[in-house]
């Protein structure tokens, strides 16, 4: 068990399970983009570990960029997404794969879909390491899912609780 700020968290997903899920996602993406050079877009801050490990396993030509958006305060989503740092590259006619650490409500995805639609991308795909189907309320297809999880608050492997816990190599859930 670990303690972050005023809350206790218990082990939930091991580093080995995370690695297996990322390897599976990489293979699916490589199969889908055999003759293309996709642009992977990581959503900061949470996705930095996922993107790093994903890129190390991806064996085909590709590019990577990042975008920073925010929608969380504490342990609950604020329902409003603010774009903080945008992309500065022309993506017209390119295939874009957004890499997320977690998809829960899907609010960030709505913003991203609009953003990339305006850029006239060829393909817009979404890859997420963690997916909370119970919390997801949007009709945007999630193309690549690493691990489906219940609607629990988690930290570790890039995910934080008010800034703490991102550096943990495995995932912990809030102790009930």
Automatic annotation (TrEMBL):
One Pfam family here: Pribosyltran
Family that this chain belongs to: Belongs to the purine/pyrimidine phosphoribosyltransferase family.
Gene Ontology terms: cellular component: cytosol
Annotated InterPro entries: HGPRT (IPR050408), Hxn_phspho_trans (IPR005904), PRTase-like (IPR029057), PRTase_dom (IPR000836)
Domain Phosphoribosyltransferase: 16-161
UniProt keyword list: Cytoplasm, Glycosyltransferase, Magnesium, Metal-binding, Nucleotide-binding, Purine salvage, Transferase
Top-level taxonomic group: Bacteria
Catalytic activity: IMP + diphosphate = hypoxanthine + 5-phospho-alpha-D-ribose 1-diphosphate; GMP + diphosphate = guanine + 5-phospho-alpha-D-ribose 1-diphosphate
Protein localization: Cytoplasm
Functional pathway: Purine metabolism; IMP biosynthesis via salvage pathway; IMP from hypoxanthine: step 1/1
One GO term of the biological process aspect: purine ribonucleoside salvage
Annotated GO MF terms: guanine phosphoribosyltransferase activity; hypoxanthine phosphoribosyltransferase activity; magnesium ion binding; nucleotide binding
Cofactors, names only: Mg(2+)
Protein name per the record: Hypoxanthine phosphoribosyltransferase
Broadest EC class assigned to this enzyme: transferase
């Amino acid at each position: 068990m670990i303690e972050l700020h005023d809350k206790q968290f218990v082990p939930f997903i091991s580093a080995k399970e995370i690695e297996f899920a990322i390897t599976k996602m990489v293979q699916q993406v490589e199969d889908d983009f055999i003759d293309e050079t996709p642009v992977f877009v990581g959503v900061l801050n949470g996705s930095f570990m996922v993107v790093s490990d994903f890129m190390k396993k991806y064996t085909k030509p590709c590019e990577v960029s990042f975008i920073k958006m925010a929608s969380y305060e504490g342990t609950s989503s604020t329902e409003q997404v603010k774009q903080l740092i945008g992309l500065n590259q022309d993506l017209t006619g390119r295939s874009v794969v957004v890499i997320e650490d977690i998809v829960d409500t899907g609010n960030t995805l709505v913003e991203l879909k609009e953003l990339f639609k305006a850029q006239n991308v060829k393909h817009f795909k979404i890859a997420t390491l963690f997916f909370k189907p119970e919390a997801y309320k949007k009709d945007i297809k999630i193309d690549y899912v690493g691990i489906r999880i219940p609607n629990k608050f988690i930290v570790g492997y890039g995910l934080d609780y008010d800034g703490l816990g991102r550096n943990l190599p495995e995932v912990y859930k809030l102790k009930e």
